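@here heads up, posting the sequence + SMILES for the magnesium ion run so it's all in one place. Ping me if the SMILES looks off, I pulled it from an old spreadsheet.
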Amino acid sequence: MTKALLLAGGLGTRLRPLTETIPKCLVPIAGRPLLDYWVERLAAAGIAEARINTHAHAERVRDYIGSVNASGRLRLVEAHEPELLGSAGTVAANAELADGAESVVIVYADNLSDIDLRPLVDYHRRHEDPLTMVLFRAPDPRACGIVELDAQHRIVSFVEKPEQPKSELANAGLYVLDAAAYRAIAAMGAFDLGFDVLPRFVGRMRGWVWGGYFRDVGTHEALERARHDAAVVFPAATRTGRSVGAGAGRPAVFLDRDGTLIEHVPYLSDPALVRLLPGAAEALVRLRRAGFACVLVTNQSAIGRGMLTVERLEEIHAELDRQLAAHGAALEAVYYCPVAPGGDDRTVVECPDRKPGPGMLLRAAAERRLDLAASWMVGDLVSDVMAGLNAGCRSILVHSGQTTAAAAPPLPGRTLVAADLAAAAEVILSGQ
Ligand SMILES: [Mg+2]
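bot reply: prediction finished. Complex structure tokens:
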């Protein structure tokens, strides 16, 4: 069994005056308290019991804890701290949490993330080190705890707020510990996990990189940003998302372009090189007949990189339409994102529209009254798959483009795999 410790006692001084009346862990984001996102993450991973420390405005947090317990989503137990104990001190004060547990997840509830905790806990179970630290790619490594990993993802150095960061991989304030390691930390008499405890685990802890959404909401600016992002990252959790996905709309199949619908040509900029993949047009015809809106969603970083103009892209799509029409097929709409990425990790949401961000799918759903929960995303890259999942759709990875069956990357749990678009259409239609 896995249990959890939610570190939620932070004063939130940088969020004053907001935190003069509510605790930081309950600041509202898209209509829900921040803590609620963590309760949802824990419950979704099958974690049934968690401790939470309280300090400022403890009575407000107590009310929230009562509502969670009444809902049956999770059993939350309050650990009140009249004086803040420090993160390691909170572990010490809750040492018995490890009783009956195989592992303990420790979460700084100051952050907002859409992390899937289940594969994290699985990963921790599979390696032999006593601690796993979740890592994210920090935009400002000097403000974070920065690690270096070896080839086995073992953390070989860890420095808080380094002057000269050796990587951009930063401590996300989320750990999985063996029960024995949790007890050992409780016995240390330390104050802060980051400064006093984690350096002692260098060489015997692993890093788990979360490429999805992660943000510290410690400042007004960061909170505003998180509120903006939440509508996109947590579509099912926000009011706009609910109204879009309420089942009133039509089902759609969102299609990646290169390697899915047409042959993959790196940074395609010549309409003469557009070639439909075998069976792709016929698949569109079948999907449309079955009532699916077929919507193209394509990352076009070539525009952001200055290698392609919007006019040229429109010529390419006119050629694509012409070839589809020759088979009696048509796309209902085309959405593209011109943004060039800063990094090369296809699992990182750098911009809401660029896949793996779900922005294009959400916009299409809002503009065309599509039912995301009844819709699918089909593409040849992990970023396609994640964009679909991030939008609340089901996803299928096809092997007709850049991802071959032999070299498939780790995929999110709910992803299906098919040889090509024709096979993917078969899967979609067989589920009707
Ligand atoms: Mg592609």
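MO: The mean pLDDT is 90.
MO: One more: DSSP finds 14 helices and 19 strands in the chain.
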